[in-house]
Specification:
The chain is α/β, with parallel strands linked by helices and 354 residues long. The chain is built from 14 helices and 13 strands. The chain has 2 domains: 141 residues, Rossmann fold; 141 residues, Response regulator (Rossmann fold, 3-Layer(aba) Sandwich). Pfam families: ABC_sub_bind.
């Protein structure tokens, strides 16, 4: 400013038209005030996550991520979510702060995390899996909450409807294509009559899937044999209880069971019982096959919804989204172990486990 005023004085003294120093100084100060006001208006951001028109930089965002338990599918959803944010200019350590908390299957820890997030000044919370979403939705009615890996948000009482959530919650569902999964089971194991299902009876996500499995199985002339667990430590015993009673085992996207999937695989493969799973991480561990959700893609889809929230959209007006395309995944080693022949039409569309 000092240099600007000196320049004004110089021009005033040398300007032959006769403008006085006083008038020119007044003109200069007025011009500086105007430029200052224009500059302030150009850089002010009008909504969370909006860009500055002066610099093009994203406004700093602070989010929380709460996950019920650690297992590959849920981890992949989180990774996909953060990748989408990074691809769109939100990067940890720069303009994105992420508070990631994992309850490790402990409900009391989950409640504490939800309470912590509800009192923090967060722009958004990502809740991964049904228990996490329920805890977070109970703890806060104001913070925008995005959910993912939730099978039935309506049944879980997270939203009023799939099309009109009506609350501060929206996101993506991982509802499984159970008809296609059981059809695959029949293709790979034509002699199947009885199907064992291992699940946590206390999880809404699993209750919904088992009810659907019973209906699909009945339509195909199959019988469901249930084996329930209350902790991940029960999964081995539940698997053993099905030996000699079933022809195949179906593992839904049950967080507790999937986190201990190696126990199911150990028992099933030892006794040559094929496993059809709700998602591919269990196939990676030794299950026979799945037609299921790609959780990384689901997380990326949820990340796209987060970008819309950052721009001012309200969760209550954003419909729950689902994945339209599913992955067919087979395990070569398990096919060989079980001595099965895979139909050509299945092989053509399948990929193989890692």
């Amino acid at each position: 400013m000092k240099h600007f005023l000196r320049r004004c004085i110089f021009y005033a003294r040398n300007y032959e038209g006769g403008m006085t120093v006083k008038k020119l100084l007044a003109f200069g100060l007025s011009l500086l005030l105007l430029l200052s006001l224009v500059g302030c208006g150009a850089t002010k951001s009008g909504a969370t996550g909006a860009t500055s028109t002066a610099t093009g930089e994203k406004k700093a965002i602070k989010i929380g991520i709460v996950q019920i338990v650690e297992h590959p599918a849920l981890d992949a959803a989180r990774q996909g979510f953060l990748e989408t944010l990074k691809e769109n200019g939100y990067e940890e350590g720069k303009n994105l702060t992420v508070d990631y908390q994992n309850a490790q299957g402990d409900q009391s820890v989950l409640q504490s995390i939800a309470q912590k997030f509800s009192s923090a000044k967060l722009d958004l919370v990502l809740a991964i899996a049904t228990p996490s979403a329920q805890a977070m939705a109970s703890a806060s009615k104001d913070i925008p909450i995005l959910i993912t890996a939730v099978t039935d948000p309506v049944e879980a009482k997270l939203v009023n409807s799939m099309d009109k959530p009506g609350k501060n919650v929206t996101g993506t569902t991982d509802m499984n294509p159970l008809k296609e999964q059981f059809a695959l089971m029949k293709q790979l194991v034509p002699s199947v009559k009885k199907v064992g299902v291992i699940y946590n009876a206390g999880e809404v996500n699993s209750q919904v899937q088992v009810a659907m499995a019973k209906k699909v199985a009945a339509d195909l002339g199959l019988t469901i044999v249930e084996a329930t667990v209350t902790t991940s430590a029960d999964v081995l015993q539940a698997s053993q209880s099905l030996v000699g009673k079933v022809d195949t085992i179906y593992v839904p996207t049950d967080n507790m069971v999937v986190s201990a999937a190696q126990s199911v695989v150990q028992v099933a493969n030892k006794n040559k019982i094929p496993i059809i799973s709700g998602e591919s991480s269990v196939v990676d561990k030794g299950a026979l096959a799945t037609i299921g959700i790609n959780y990384k893609k689901l997380g990326k889809q949820t990340g796209e919804m987060a970008l819309r929230v950052f721009k001012g959209e309200k969760p209550q007006d954003m419909p729950i989204e689902s994945q339209k395309e599913f992955d067919t995944v087979l395990n070569k080693a398990t096919i060989t172990l079980l001595g099965l022949t895979v139909p050509d039409d299945v092989l053509k569309k399948a990929t193989f486990a890692k």
